[in-house]
Design brief:
With about 80 residues, the chain is mainly β. It has strands at about 15-20, 25-30, 35-40, 45-50, 55-60, 70-75.
Length: about 80
């Protein structure tokens, strides 16, 4: 009933959260403030935060090469 980890997302709304399939301690998230963030569950820290030009709708790791990820944005790219 208690959360395992708490993250400060930095936005009101988190649109998408995906775990990396090869390294399950890594997760990617995209938020309503146009940010794309990478988090490490082992250290409970945010590794990187990137502010995109357009709002992000979804994020997904590549299933065949999990070092790559794709971000779907508001401008249909």
């Amino acid at each position: 009933s208690d959360p395992v980890n708490n993250f400060s997302w930095g936005a009101d709304t988190v649109n998408s959260v995906r775990f990396n399939q090869a390294e399950t301690s890594l997760l990617a998230s995209c938020s309503s403030d146009r940010s794309l963030m990478l988090h490490d569950l082992r250290t409970n820290t945010t590794i990187s935060k990137i502010i995109m030009r357009m709002k992000n709708n979804s994020v997904c790791w590549n299933p065949q090469e999990p070092v790559y990820l794709s971000v779907a944005s508001e401008d249909f790219n």
